[in-house]
């Protein structure tokens, strides 16, 4: 009988094809254990993704890495965009040669101690096309996670190619303990449609979504400093609200970002006083909060307001119908917004506003723009409560049908009685 060329009848335990008790070849098990050992030294693994190309994903990944390093964190940056590795160009690292040691491949050192690894370092000609099928990509990704000597890191930022193909799928499977994904979009509908697929991809793989960044959100005029909405504005935030995921902020399109990227200069460091650089720094706050929150992000730190006890004044929003609290906040006649001084426990200002159209995800964003810190409601569904939390608005449910001023006074006096949530759906 002809033997299968892929079989092995060797009885030696030293043979790489010899199976362990778990059914894995010894070589494969050794690689998995080595990868696990490498990754165990990295506290947090963050994936930067987008369903659409051309949204500035690599620029966002590079500047997030630099911004985090500026906060004193030890950071690694892994570029797995094999067909268009941008990180070497963005960081002015073209032509760098990889070195090895007994501990494995050594990543390239960058400013602030950032460690960088990219397939771009392995290409002799930067113009060479990488024509690989899926199995080869998967093998190289595993090698980068297994053989690169990252050492101990606070964060590893992983920059993916566009889409939901082999690269993000492989990393998600190799790193089931990854903290989650930062998803990059631009404001226009064409980009948002593809980004929704990235969110769906994450959910199907049970991967946490740290949040959405809206890049190229308006252009800063280099002459007058005004912002022009070239690709519209707010689409990313609206989409994040509709999909029930955190929104991390808007990055304006600043011509200096383009210049810095072409020159290989970290924009967020050299132009740290610009609005775009400040937006990058704010966008990393939820990532920095991972250590404090045990690896999870449930609110939007960009919009997060100080603790109530630390605020001298707050604005309370109350849905009203017929002069009293409306049981269902989304179908009220008007919203009463009450500014209160928490020290003197007095009402400073009160105004009534008609609500916007009843559309999914719109009310939390609208009330946030009106400056609300808190909403007192009779009932509210759990998903809606999550959207308010993402917009930095505390929700009190189960309040009785009473006049707005009476509800606010009871709240300030610590006498507000809340019962069952009358609209928990």
* Quaternary structure annotation: single chain
E-strand count: 17
Catalogue the unreliable spans. Answer: 1-7, 295-310
Shape: elongated
- Separation of termini? 66 Å
CATH class of the largest domain: Alpha Beta
Mean pLDDT, to the nearest integer, reads 80
Provide an overview of this structure.
Residues 1-7 and 295-310 have low confidence and may be disordered. Strands 1, 2, 5, 6, 7, 8, 9, 10 and 11 form a 9-stranded mixed sheet that branches. This protein folds into 2 domains: 26-288, P-loop containing nucleotide triphosphate hydrolases (Rossmann fold, 3-Layer(aba) Sandwich), CATH 3.40.50.300; 308-412, Nucleotidyltransferase, domain 5 (2-Layer Sandwich), CATH 3.30.420.130. The chain is elongated, with a radius of gyration of 26 Å. Helices cover 31% and strands 22% of the residues. It is built from 14 helices and 17 strands. It has helices at 26-40, 57-70, 87-90, 134-147, 166-174, 189-204, 235-243, 255-263, 267-270, 275-283, 285-288, 362-369, 382-390, 404-412; strands at 42-49, 75-79, 99-101, 104-106, 108-109, 115-118, 153-159, 180-185, 209-220, 227-228, 247-253, 313-321, 324-325, 334-341, 346-353, 374-376, 394-396. The chain is α/β, with parallel strands linked by helices and 425 residues long.
